[in-house]
Design a protein that fits this description.
It is a single chain. This protein is of the alpha+beta class. It has one domain (about 1-75). It has two helices and two strands; from the N terminus they run H-H-E-E. Strands 1-2 form a two-stranded antiparallel ribbon. Strand 1 (about 35-40) and strand 2 form a beta hairpin. It is globular, with a radius of gyration of 13 Å.
Length: about 80
């Protein structure tokens, strides 16, 4: 990550960006969604959809990359 980009990010944004870079395959739409929660373990990062707590039709851990999503809400 370039220094210029790192300086303009808050600490939380930088942590999120590093975690997102570890998600395999890339998360697609989930990366820009306000419902995204990243669950980190020592070896992996999982994408949890917070919307699934309120909407039983939404997958808790969506299949990635997510190219379409009725619940997508840009962050």
């Amino acid at each position: 990550m370039p220094d210029r980009m790192r300086e303009s990010m808050t600490r939380d944004e930088a942590i999120k960006a590093r975690a997102l870079a570890r998600v395999r395959p890339a998360p697609g739409l989930c990366a820009t969604c306000q419902h995204l929660q990243l669950i980190e373990s020592a070896q992996s990062v999982f994408v949890l959809c917070e919307l699934s707590r309120r909407d039983p039709g939404m997958p808790r851990y969506p299949r990635l990359p997510r190219l379409e999503c009725p619940g997508h809400a840009p962050d």
